[in-house]
Amino acid sequence: MHLKIGTRASKLARAQAEKVAGLLDERGIGNELVFISTVGDEQTGVPLHEIGGQGVFVRALDDALLAGEIDIAVHSMKDIPAVRPDGLITVAILIRDSPADYIVTDKKQEEIRILGTSSTRRTAQFQRHWPGIEIKQLRGNVDTRLAKLKAGEYDAIVLAEAGLQRLSLTLPGFRCDPVIHVPSTNQGTIAVVSRDEAAVREILVTIDDAKTRTDTLIERVVMEEIGGGCYTPLGIYCHDSYLIAEVLSLEGDRIFRLERQITGSDQARIFAAEVRDGADELIKEAYKRLGLSS
Using one digit for the tens of pLDDT, what is the confidence trace for 116-140? Predict the structure, then answer.
């Protein structure tokens, strides 16, 4: 069998797709990369919540799968929205890389005055933990963001540590503790999506990591139950079934946080209901202020 692997064309997306291609090569499965442009790649000058949130990096690849133009699509799992088209499944989840955020800078923390990020979660968390910091919007691929840092537009920028690892980039700076700066749902995880076809499932199950699937699917259960997508400052992180979730106000001055050892999706839903109830006003406020309907 020969598989067409759909991916965005950025260096990071390509590196992730090549990782999947390499795993298929090891198993004697022929494959080729097919590059597809998404709305998120084409509109880099505005915050994600203004152009559709998580799904902006995924919809074009979903369409290509449903049209039969590709056989599988490779994504950063955190980009995959909760609501999925009929007929598509997450056929494989690779072993998780670092879930942590990474601060790229050549300065000490106390010297950082301007921090670049477009994430409402990161913005709220850094405003909470680093009082007085100025947050400036930052979008674009990794090279674009690093160029803006080098040009002096920022003192530091925030990237996912997993992305740096996949690009084999060693940059000055420091890692954020994911227990304190709780990452976005599924951060650090590569997922493979396909049509629900037995032949493809049989191949891709061989690269699926059971432990990562358990933790990341628990995170997604909580995300789906809470709602909020990438609009609300929301961090969800599960490691060895120990689950942490926090919802913050847009300025980071208010927070609802819950953590607990859980077993399975039923307990995850109970956990999520507690978070949703406790953070209800924060979630409604974020939607209202961002001009969105909840």
Answer: 998 999 999 999 999 999 999 998 8
Q: Is residue 203 in a domain?
A: no
| pTM confidence score | 0.87
Number of domains into which the chain is organized: 1
Residue 160 inside a domain? The answer is yes
Can you spell out the DSSP letters for the chain? -EEEEEE-SSHHHHHHHHHHHHHHHHTT-EEEEEE---HHHH--SS-GGGTTGGGGGTHHHHHHHHTTS-SEEEEEGGGS-SS--TTEEEEEEPPP----EEEE-SS-GGG--EEE---HHHHHHHHHHSTTPEEE---S-HHHHHHHHHTTS-SEEEEEHHHHHHTT---SEEEPPTTTSPPPTTTT-EEEEEES-HHHHHHHGGG--HHHHHHHHHHHHHHHHH--TTTS-EEEEEETTEEEEEEE-TTSS-EEEEEEE--HHHHHHHHHHHHHHHTHHHHHHHHHHTT---
Q: Is 215 a catalytic residue?
A: no
Q: Which of 62, 79, 97, 215 does the annotation list as catalytic? A: 79
